[in-house]
Amino acid sequence: MTDRDLVDFGAVRGKTCMVTGASDGIGFAAASALASAGAEVVLVVRDEGRGRAAADRIRAAHAGAHIALELCDVSSQAQIRALGTRYEASGRPLHVLVNNAGCWNTTRKQSVDGIELTWATNMLGYFVLTRVVEPVLRRCAPGRVVSVGSGLAEGLDLDDINFVRRPWGRIRPGVAAYAQTSQARRMWTYALARRLGDAGVTANVMNPNNTRTGAFKKGGGVLGWLVHYGNLFVSESAEHGADTAVWLAANGGIDGVTGKYWEKRKEQHCPFRDTVREDELWAVCERMTAPSEGRVQVAV
User: Fold this and answer.
1) Structural domain boundaries of the chain?
2) What is the pLDDT of residues 109-134, one digit of tens each?
3) Does a cis peptide bond (omega within 30 degrees of 0) precede residue 291?
4) Are the C-beta atoms of residues 95 and 16 closer than 8 Å to each other?
5) Which of 203, 273, 294, 295 has most Cβ atoms within 10 angstroms of its Cβ?
6) Average pLDDT in the 21-44 region?
7) What is the Cα–Cα distance from 36 to 38, expressed in whole angstroms?
8) Cα angle 241-247-253, degrees, rounded to a multiple of 5
9) Does domain 3-289 fall into CATH 3.40.50.720?
10) Rounded Cα–Cα distance for residues 138 and 192 (Å)
């Protein structure tokens, strides 16, 4: 047994945790670990069949696990808001939100809201879902928002979020779009932590490092498959990738710790800390998620 195994994850015992992208990969691993720690886990998934299969696998692995299922495509703002409305109306508590669902696309695609799909999913999906469940988190405080990020973080351009003027990339298609969302998720987390203030809800972001998941092959194209198969030989399991997210969600020893970037359960330096830029990003996300008549789409 290692020191990592000795950490008490009792902070979520009897609590409710919501995990997005929970049907496979890091999301499934995190949901399963939280269930094993005694939490009731809400799986947010796009596909009902895969979601039910994931729920059955968790119940089979952890006797007595309490698992609920919510269908939502987190690239769709309408679907996220509908989830928030359903959840609040249900009267269920929520103590932990794990933002995990994400994508990488080798060809430029748009969401149903007319926004570049990587940004719509990896950044605005986090932003909107957190906002719609924030009232429940505040009522059930203390609570935690844990966001899965990436070490590939760079190139955020608030004047061309949709990659209208910038090239998509031929040699590394979609990589720049993915990297800018990773930078944005860190900056948004720091801004969120400041806005939550003394509400009793913390916000942290983590890097799962090189993890074996299906995300790369879902990106499509030859590059997606090459990265997927190459990654099988040099990466760690989804359970290892999810470990720090679970630790941030469930470890009672970090109560009140907020606004930080983590890898392998250790706080890391981040070069993107800048409150002015963080607030500029927040304002852009607000505009892009405003009612349709005011939403910024191709303009950014």
Assistant:
1) 3-289
2) 999 999 999 999 999 999 999 999 99
3) no
4) yes
5) 203
6) 97
7) 5
8) 160
9) yes
10) 13
Report the SS3 class of residue 63.
coil
238-250 and 25-36 are packed helices; what angle lies between their axes, rounded to 10 degrees?
A: 50
Band of pLDDT at residue 171, cut at 50, 70 and 90: confident
Out of 144-153, 197-206, 208-217, 227-236, pick the least confident: 227-236
C-alpha 69/C-alpha 145 separation (Å) is 19
Other C-beta atoms lying within 10 Å of the C-beta of residue 70:
17
Query: What is the pLDDT, as a whole number, of residue 9?
Result: 81
Specify the pTM. 0.90
Single-letter residue type at 181: T
> What size, in residues, is the chain?
300
Residue/partner pairs of 56-63 with CB below 8 Å, 24 or more apart? 57/28, 57/32, 58/28, 58/31, 58/32, 61/32, 61/36, 62/32, 62/35, 62/36
The pLDDT tens digits for 185-226 are: 999 999 999 999 999 999 999 999 976 556 555 555 555 545
User: Cα–chain-centroid distance for residue 164?
Assistant: 25
Q: What is the dihedral of CA 35, 38, 40, 45, to 10 degrees?
A: -10
Amino acid identity at 215: A
- The closest alpha carbon to 155, from 125, 128, 132, 182, belongs to 182
Phi and psi at 169, nearest 5°, equal 105, 130
- Reading the block at residue 15, the tokens are 């609590």
Say whether pLDDT at 241 is over 50: yes
